[in-house]
Amino acid sequence: MEFFKVTLSLLVIAFLSANLSVAHPGFNVGWGGNGFGSFGLFPEFYQFSCPQANDIVMSVLEKAIAKEPRMAASLLRLHFHDCFVQGCDASVLLDDSSTVVSEKKSLPNRNSIRGFEVIDEIKVKLEESCPQTVSCADILALAARGSTVLSGGPNWQLPLGRRDSETASLSTSNNNIPPPNSTLQNLLTLFKRQGLNEVDLVALSGGHTIGVARCTTFKQRLYNQNGNNQPDATLDKTYYYGLKSVCPRSGGDNNISPLDFASPARFDNTYFKLILWGKGLLTSDQVLFTGSPRTTMELVKRYAEDEGLFFNQFANSMIKMGNISPLTGFKGEVRKNCRRVN
Ligand code: HEM
What is residue 28's predicted lDDT score, i.e. its pLDDT? Predict the structure, then answer.
């Protein structure tokens, strides 16, 4: 009897939510009815309104990453830079307009974040199949997960149902995204501001197992780490000489170096092994092992020893990061074009 009652209520919910989607195409609630903004995100959000959403995202990603493996890294980073600025609301994708000052010009983003054309291509395909249904904020979350999986990393059940902002914040982008020469204390503070703890900090920093950084982001370590014209003493010597050849004292600011030189396109735990050997590229990477408080050092060691443990925690922390202040229910909108508000 109980079984029939539950099945019947599920059918009623599905029927009502399908009708609501038809009646209000601009306000698509998927199924399960998140209509009043109180239920948060859930993996089946597009189960009825756009069941092929993830397949569409994956087919575009497969092509883009086959063409340029680094694209996986760039897309993973985009989701991070979105979520740390007024929550995961696709604010990072907005271009300048009469009402918007784009985040793309902020210090951490300028000449640095990339992958917008891939997001555009995914959006165009989704609009063809499921008009005004899948938000740009969810596309960023799906693209980050898909990029991780296609690079050999973990998969996870991804909660969905984010909606898109009508605003961006250049100043929040400048203030909330940690700079590469951060102390451990500073990293912990900036992550805490987003509801993330030291376990999340270490696991998510593991995103640096793929992708590259520009010379300008690690130059200080090579030539003047503490204002005494000396290199960072925690840098492995051989690694240091190698880095100097790509990143001279003057000029070469846009030369790039892999964040994990041992396997730059493979999502694995070598990032943590390299840190143990003094071969982390950014100050923010190396301080996870050498900085105080010492709590993060133990985590770096554990993830270096046990890739499965790292993968599990990375997945959990990505879900946590993806949950930062999403717009749900009647808040925000589903943009037709990720670069501008409707
Ligand atoms: C802990 C604080 C973090 C700092 C200080 C930091 C800093 C940086 C910097 C400076 C770069 C290079 C940018 C450039 O050269 O223009 C970079 C690249 C990257 N970051 Fe982070 N990051 C942090 C956390 C994260 C997190 C949480 C993720 C994702 C989970 C992430 C993913 C990436 C990826 C994948 C790249 C390479 C992008 C590419 O090749 O296009 N980072 N990060």
Answer: 43
